[in-house]
Amino acid sequence: MPYPEHLIYPMRQELAVLGAVETRTPSEVDQALAAHETVLVVVNSVCGCAAGKARPAIGLALKYGNAKPDAVATVFAGADVEATARVRELLSPLPPSSPSMAIFRNGKPVAMIHRHDIEARQAPEIAKLLIDAFEKHCAKQSA
Description:
Layout: H1 5-16, E1 21-22, H2 26-35, E2 38-44, H3 48-64, E3 71-76, H4 81-91, E4 100-105, E5 108-113, H5 115-119, H6 123-137
Helix pairs in contact: 2-4, 3-6
């Protein structure tokens, strides 16, 4: 049974104010990935490390990084069940993880930050991981 929406709404909003697009169905996940060259996909969660570390880190990385993904999309584990399953299918064979963050380039995963990466760090350290991944995978190539 999915989490009640009234309980997770504030957690969704933390990413929405950063410009993240909610993808609540598998087709919305596919559309978000197809619409942009680079997409940061966030598997949001109710856990404490999502609240105190992951979501703040995303805000820091998007504010302070030079290179950024073309879009940010999110699914909520335990609520957007089918959409989360689609993201996890696309990330296979990597193990499922929530919270987690993955960068997709041309619809394919190129980098992932797992829960164990999040739990062991503070928000600024996680932001640095994201910024480094953005530099590597989202920087625009010179013609």
